[in-house]
Structures are given as structure tokens and as C-alpha cells.
Design a protein that fits this description.
Layout: E1 16-18, E2 21-24, E3 27-28, E4 31-33, H1 38-46, E5 55-58, E6 64-65, E7 82-85, H2 100-114, E8 118-122, H3 147-162, E9 167-173, E10 175-176, H4 183-187, E11 194-197, E12 205-206, E13 208-209, H5 211-226, E14 234-237, E15 243-244, H6 245-251, E16 257-260, E17 268-269, H7 274-279, H8 289-299
Parallel strand pairs: 4-5, 4-7, 5-6, 7-8, 8-9, 9-14, 10-13, 11-16, 12-17
Antiparallel strand pairs: 1-2, 2-3, 12-15
Helix pairs in contact: 1-5, 1-8, 2-3, 6-8
């Protein structure tokens, strides 16, 4: 049985609910797998109001229940929808990182069952490892620095091999604000947080994306898929400019201590998002520390 999505009161958008799937201007509500996870919950809360709301699928209450181990739940009317896979195993959980490929393949099989138009699979910027300050585009050689990036890269290869005609885009998502360092450090109440200092005197820097910007990008990509726009098999997804972790502390008025960076410390993981900007233009300040905090607060 599909999840019925209520209409939005006071909105100019008029969608008709059809077995749990909203339709607006030819776009069917996307299906989000992993909607009850940390990033999934933020994305659903920040979803833009000018597009049909997503159908959340996850393991917890408030979503269509599916643990991605058994057969997918029936979603009548989902034919032609986009499927977004935010489900995955992260280094911060207790699951086996090797489970990322099987989860993505289960999502691919579900997308076929539902008759989906396109599958977006969340990969990670960690597939690149250390990058130059100017950032790397999707053609760069991947050299993951740890098992998480290696398993995400293996996941990408498995999905690409099994796609067999279904449109699939692996999204190499930057660090999601509010779901990792240094946001977690402050949320945990650390009295004296610290950062690694590298040989040039600076600290770690990453390409971030706030949850509101992430939701906006996902919605826009789904709309492009619905319109038949050709989409690349791999796409970097982050704000146009990287952000120093020190700036994220400063934007919250928090001080921190420096510690010498270890030889294997990651200084920069910067993404070149030129390909994304041609599809979904973003403001240059989307990655500013103050913007990231504002988006985290909005999606809380």
C-alpha cells in the first residue's frame, strides 16, 4: 500500500494524489530510500515546496517501511518516478561498510520493479581522497584514503555494471552540513574542540553542502530527469566553494585548539562542481559557514 501524501495548504501548487504519488507538471513525486536516516530526515524536512513532495521509504515510523533486505514494497503509481538512494553504511555506524554495494543494488532492483525513470545513488567525495586546492572534477583519478571511500567506489562500479539501460547517476556528495565534522563535535557539547594543523599552517577544508541546498539539488535533478534531460553517470554535488572547518567553528562563535596533523591526515577534499552548476546553478555563497549553519538550523 502506497503512502498517501497530503496536499500543501496555502501553496499555489496543485497536485493530485494518486496512490501515494503526487503529480505536478509531469513530475512524479520522487521516492527517497533511506528517508528515516540522518541525512534523509534533513532532506525531507528541507524539501522545496515548489515541487511534489517525496515519498519517504525507510526503516522507521513515518515512512513506507522497507529494510532493503526483502522485496520492495508496492508503490502503485510510481512508474516514471525518480528514486533517490540516501541509504548506506557510514564509518560512524556499526554496519559493515561492504554493505553499501548490496544496498545500492537492492535500490536498483526496486527501481526496476516500480518502473522508475531514473536512479540517483548517493556516493561520496571520499572516493577521491586528498585533492588539490582547486578541486577535482568527475574525470579525476579516484584514490580513496580509507575503506569508506573504497567501498563507495566499489558501489559505483557495481551499480554501473548492473544498470542495463536504466538511467543511473552516482552523486559524489560533499560533506553534508549537520551530519559530520565539525558539526557533530559541537552538537556533542565538546568544551574545547580541536582541529589538525597542516604544514602550511591551515586546517582541514572540505566541499560542503547544506541540507537545504542538497534538497534543492535533488529536487532539481529529479525535475530534469522527468523532463527527459540527459544526466551524467557521475556527478559531484556540493557548494561551489569549499569551506575551512575553522570557519565553521568561528561562524558559531566557538574557539578551538590546534593539533599537529598526522602524516596521513586529509588536508583538502575539494570538488569541482562545474558539471553540477550547468544543471543546477547555485549561489557562490552556498558553502559559506554562516549559510551552512542557517541550513542546519532550518532542517533541524
Amino acid at each position: 500500500m502506497g503512502l498517501k501524501i497530503p496536499g500543501r495548504r496555502g501553496s499555489a501548487m496543485r497536485c493530485r494524489t494518486w496512490s501515494g504519488i503526487d503529480v505536478d507538471c509531469g513530475m512524479i513525486s520522487p521516492i527517497i530510500l533511506g528517508a528515516s536516516g540522518r541525512v534523509g530526515r534533513m532532506v525531507c524536512r528541507a524539501w522545496p515546496e515548489d515541487v511534489p513532495p517525496p515519498v519517504p521509504v525507510g526503516r522507521r515510523a513515518g515512512a513506507v517501511r522497507w529494510d532493503m533486505a526483502g522485496p520492495p514494497p508496492p508503490l502503485a503509481g510510481a512508474e516514471g518516478a525518480a528514486v533517490i538512494v540516501l541509504a548506506g553504511v557510514t564509518p560512524h555506524g556499526d554496519g559493515d561498510l561492504a554493505g553499501n554495494a548490496p544496498l545500492a543494488l537492492a535500490a536498483l532492483a526496486a527501481a526496476r520493479t516500480w518502473g522508475a525513470r531514473h536512479l540517483f545513488v548517493a556516493s561520496s567525495s571520499s572516493v577521491y581522497g586528498e585533492t588539490p586546492a582547486a578541486g577535482v572534477d568527475e574525470t579525476a583519478r579516484c584514490a580513496p584514503a580509507g575503506p569508506y571511500g573504497a567501498e563507495k567506489l566499489r558501489m559505483e562500479a557495481a551499480v554501473a555494471e548492473a544498470a542495463q539501460g536504466l538511467g543511473v547517476t552516482c552523486l559524489r556528495v560533499g560533506n553534508v552540513a549537520g551530519a559530520g565534522a565539525p558539526f557533530d563535535t559541537l552538537a556533542a557539547g565538546a568544551e574545547r574542540p580541536w582541529l589538525h594543523r597542516f604544514a602550511d599552517g591551515t586546517g582541514p577544508s572540505r566541499s560542503y553542502v547544506g541540507p537545504v541546498t542538497l534538497a534543492h539539488c535533488l529536487a532539481a535533478l529529479c525535475r530534469l530527469a522527468a523532463a527527459g534531460q540527459p544526466l551524467p553517470p557521475v556527478l559531484n554535488l556540493a557548494a561551489p566553494r569549499p569551506t575551512a572547518m575553522a570557519d565553521i567553528y568561528a561562524a558559531r562563535g566557538r574557539s578551538f585548539a590546534w593539533r599537529p596533523a598526522p602524516p596521513d591526515g586529509l588536508h583538502r577534499v575539494h570538488l569541482d562542481c562545474t558539471r553540477l552548476s550547468a544543471l543546477v546553478p547555485l549561489p557562490q555563497n552556498a558553502g559559506a559557514a554562516a549559510t551552512l549553519w542557517a541550513e542546519v538550523d532550518r532542517a533541524a
